Amino acid sequence: MLNVGVDVGQPAAILLNSNESVYGPSPHARMAARAAISSIERYLENPDRILVPAIAGHFGLNEDWITTGQGSDDLLARLARAYLGPGTELVRSANGYLKVPNYAHANDAKVVSVADDGFTPSVDRMIEALTDRVRLVYLANPENPAGTYLSGSEIRRLHAALPDNVLLVIDAAYEEYVDATDYEPTHKLVEEAENVVMCRTFSKIYGLAGARIGWMFGPPDVIDTVRRIALTFPVASPSAAAAVAALEDRAHTQFVYDANRTGRNWLTSEMQALGLSIVPSQANFLLIHFPDPDKSAKAVDRFLRQKGIAVRRLASEAYKDYIRITIGQPHELRAARDAIAEFLSGHP
């Protein structure tokens, strides 16, 4: 994530800056990772052999349509390597996930960034941007760093406008946090189409950011292509063991979902009570607006850091007046709320 930070000379005690799960992984995942270390001198041959059946069984998906990688970013980079090149284009929402353009540029492709509507991707503008050079249309749903989303009907409208030779890539890293009733689980469209793939991750609700495990669901020919260009031995054995155990602990996942929803609603209300506007979020973070140059996002970021609280500022010009706060545990959110209130009430 491209970001703008401040150095106040001390490490933060409360980390609300990288959208990690503040509740960590399932205890069973921790135990599984520790047990796998006993054979860590060995490479993990073909991690899909272990991970794919577990993922398919958990989500009710076809194993032939799944592959895995080092987080969803690895899979996004491989898609770019497989389908982009000189003279081709990737279409994206201008203020969407900020790393994706790098993957296109690395393959000498052009990035077409289209304007959004208050950080919500514009289907109409993405359709207008289509040319015969476009090979990938990328969309994070929910979006990062804004937390906005598109309904199932809007996603389907975008897909219906795509030529058969254009692949719609939906990055659903935050799907497990969604509570919007008009959001359609992404795998449903993938199963019905021949040119849609979904990327998912274990880094968010499963609390395994450091394990670096992602997975992709898509047509078998795309999966085969992406699998062929993977690194040798791409996944560590403790990571794979932890991921399988995390899927099995549905109670922990539900706990994290419930706690995130409660915390997100609470922080939204508290920020609004302080007179701040927020971007409605379907993820595990909240984007908060600081339009007053005398009480700027840069200044509140520094103030929070001085209080030992790390939040995220972003390098994109569109986000210069915003900070993004990961939904932390209740005591962490209260500390952030109290510090922001102190900042607004009189800190220069």
Would you give an account of this structure?
The chain is an alpha/beta fold. It has 2 domains: 14-23 and 251-346, Aspartate Aminotransferase, domain 1, CATH 3.90.1150.10; 27-248, Type I PLP-dependent aspartate aminotransferase-like (Major domain) (Aspartate Aminotransferase, domain 2). 39% of the residues lie in helices and 15% in strands. The protein contains 12 helices and 12 strands. The protein has helices spanning 27-36, 48-59, 71-83, 100-105, 123-128, 152-160, 186-192, 220-228, 237-248, 250-273, 297-306, 330-346, and strands spanning 14-15, 66-69, 89-93, 110-114, 134-140, 167-171, 196-201, 214-217, 278-279, 285-289, 309-310, 322-326. The strands form 3 sheets. The chain has a 7-stranded mixed β-sheet with strand order 2-8-7-6-5-3-4, with helices on both faces. Strands 9-10-12 form a 3-stranded antiparallel β-sheet. Strands 1-11 form a two-stranded parallel sheet. The chain starts with 13 loop residues before the first strand and ends with a helix. The model has no long low-confidence stretch (mean pLDDT 95).
